[in-house]
Amino acid sequence: MTRLRDKALILGVIFYCLAILPTTACAHKPGDPEHQIYNMGDLKLESGAIIKEFAISYVTHGKLNPNKSNAILTCSSLGGNHHRVDFLIGPGKALDTDKYFIVCADAIGNGMTTSPSNSKAQPEPKFPPFSIRDMVQSQHRLLTEHLGVKHLVAVAGASMGGMQALQWAVSYPDFMDAVVALTPAARTCPWTAALMKAGNSIFELDPAFERGNYKVQPEKAWRVWTDFILAIGANAPEGLDQRCATSSDAAAFLKWWEDLWIKTGFDANDCIYQQKAIMEHDISRTPGLNGDYQKALRSIKARVLVLPAKGDVLVPPFIKEDAKYIKNAQVVEIPTFFGHFGASAIFSSADVLNMNSAGRVFLDDVRDFGKKVK
Description:
39% of the residues lie in helices and 14% in strands. With 374 residues, it is of the alpha/beta class. The chain is globular and about 55 Å long.
């Protein structure tokens, strides 16, 4: 891959892939915050089904102040974990650990929080389907029941994490002052839903998948899924052109992604369940809104910062238009060459600087405006 410019870039990609995957996050590096679990018993889903023996995984950064008014929640992405927005967390960054107490929650189905892959009571295809709102409900219980946090400065997340952040603002409109949503959707558009459906079909059509009862991960399916979702869907043509000079380079790039993803591992059933949750995501389906999408957007009381990515084909930035129905919304486009991956630390330090700058300025303004953090 002659256009993959230097060793630092390659190591950056490898670090990101390791960081977003559930299996590797258990092996903490020196200095990482302690990995924690809250066992909350049964979790009743909005469908009426129950996840038995439910436990949510999370880490925290910074210190919770005495009146518990400085907390920020981050939500994980498809296949991601509590490291997903690490590039925004730290002293002087958007999620400043000198100011805020950051709770980084793992979503249902990521392999760390209770998931098809790790449930003893309801393993693999016996696991009940869940929604983005169910993820949000589990996080609300973590905050209120376990951490004693009754109000947040903000909810933040990227991709599926951004979907959760916007759902938070509709499900619990008085619970937070602000939302920071990177490459999000308030409802999944048909294009993204089709990609997720095709992604699931890749697994389901692989004989090794065995209707979800596989003993080893379906490697062929994972290779095609990685090519389709990660290497192509989450990139942009301009970014791929920067990295690959020839068709041979492009083929090598895909193979490299495949090998890296398979080595680090993510469970196929977990992926399918999370992709189904994304397919069904729509804030207007929140109880009491009767499918009225504009009403759902107008119900948001929090100040909202939306950061769509230029050239995003995985989650097209329709949120830029939708945001006009949110009373206090600000849209700042990430001027990236890398599409959906622009909302990450994979390829561009400039993108990271832009996101941190926008988020820091926004939250500093919210902090003074709301006067909720003392």
